[in-house]
Write a structure and sequence with these properties.
Oligomer: single chain
Largest sheet: 9 strands, mixed
CATH superfamily of the largest domain: Dihydrodipicolinate Reductase, domain 2
Family: Belongs to the Gfo/Idh/MocA family.
InterPro entries: Gfo/Idh/MocA-like_OxRdtase_C, Gfo/Idh/MocA-like_OxRdtase_N, Gfo/Idh/MocA_oxidoreduct, NAD(P)-bd_dom_sf
Number of helices: 10
Strand content: 15-25%
Keywords: Oxidoreductase
Strand order of the largest sheet: 14-13-12-11-7-10-9-8-15
GO molecular function, one term: oxidoreductase activity
Structural class: alpha/beta
Pfam families: GFO_IDH_MocA, GFO_IDH_MocA_C
């Protein structure tokens, strides 16, 4: 019998990310929690639309709960789901603090349930391409990694993301993806220096940041601005043999919003005008690189295997802890105006 998943929250993340990916990975979705029934009924058909998370968690026909509610609700919703004996996927960020991540990890261990974090950008086309180039040694020894996610959104909205609440702001939103990708490629930094700021008029949350991280001779630079009309390069990776330059965003989000299903054969592909360039150091020759296919579906396929076969979850709470730990250090660095040395992280059960 197919595993049964319930979704808490059916906004952009619930409707366009979790629901299509869950279905394509073989999950059945009997119920969702949302205040707007129409989108859920239109997409899922015969689905129970519930008003509260408690109603969903009380049901016996739910094996996994995907939490796509606003970030300030992630911790209470995840804790309640684990206490109710459900396996849990939480959209990023898992929690605003490492202390809360540890609490959720402890709850998951106590309840003997799987807990994972939806860091879907690990399966972006561009990131998978960079990972492959590094693994193949085509760049040589990496000296610097630069990743940006700039946008032009100068107006503050009345959406929950722009409210001054724990877990909100661009550092927790897009920053979690950039940090997670850097940690996946290179491991934990030894130190960091950060400038975290708000630039938009009447902004109540962080809407920009610059983080410099070091690990031996390697430098990692991560940044986001919401006041940038020209996105420029998303990635610039420099090594002893070559550099890789990449502009443009992975296409999966736009494809899902356009109604393309994640199991269609062309899903996750990139237009040729966005393909990255490998610049060879000795000759300066520029080589266009055929990208890897993006595949967010891998996340929920691995989550299904974790539940059915007791395999590791695709993104562990321990990995989420490491990401939030960097965010906490970045906030401290920016507030104090100094470099923060990062000691080895405390062990968690899921490491």
């Amino acid at each position: 019998m197919a595993l049964r998943a319930g979704i808490i929250g059916f906004g952009v993340a619930g409707r366009y990310f979790h629901a299509p990916l869950l279905r394509a990975a073989g999950f059945h979705i009997p119920a969702v929690v949302t205040s707007k029934p129409a989108p859920a009924q239109e997409y899922l058909g015969d689905v129970d639309v519930l008003a509260t998370a408690d109603e969903l968690l009380a049901r016996k026909d739910i094996d996994l709960v995907a939490i796509a509610s606003p970030s300030p609700l992630h911790v209470p919703h995840a804790a309640a789901a684990l206490r109710a004996g459900k396996h849990v996927v939480v959209d990023k960020p898992l929690a605003p603090s490492t202390a809360e991540v540890s609490e959720l990890e402890h709850l998951a261990t106590q309840s003997q349930r799987k807990l994972s974090v939806f860091q879907n950008r690990r399966w972006d086309s561009d990131f998978l391409t960079i990972k492959k180039l590094i693994e193949q040694g085509r760049l040589g020894k990496i000296s610097s990694f630069h990743a940006r996610w700039d946008r032009f959104r100068p107006q503050v909205t009345d959406r929950w993301k722009d409210r001054d609440e724990p877990g909100n702001g661009i550092l927790y939103d897009l920053g979690t993806h950039l940090i997670d990708q850097a940690l996946m490629l290179f491991g934990q930094p030894e130190w960091l220096y950060a400038n975290v700021f708000s630039q938009r008029p009447n902004s109540k949350t962080v809407d920009g940041f610059e983080i410099l991280m070091g690990q031996g001779a390697l430098r990692m630079t991560l940044g986001v601005s919401l006041m940038c009309a020209d996105g420029g390069y998303r990635y610039r990776v420099n090594g002893s043999e070559a550099s890789f330059l990449k502009a443009g965003l992975d296409q999966q989000e736009e494809q899902l919003k356009a109604g393309v299903e994640p199991d269609e054969h062309f899903f996750g592909g990139e237009p040729t005008e966005q393909w990255g360039t490998l610049v060879h150091g000795e000759t300066g020759r520029r080589e266009v690189i055929t990208p890897e296919t993006g595949r967010w579906l891998t996340f929920y396929e691995k989550m299904r295997e974790a539940i059915e076969e007791d395999q590791p979850v695709p993104v562990s709470a321990a990995q989420a802890y490491d990401t939030i730990r960097v965010i906490e250090a970045a906030l401290t660095s920016s507030a104090m105006g100094c470099r923060i040395d990062l000691q080895p992280a405390a062990p968690l059960v899921s490491r």
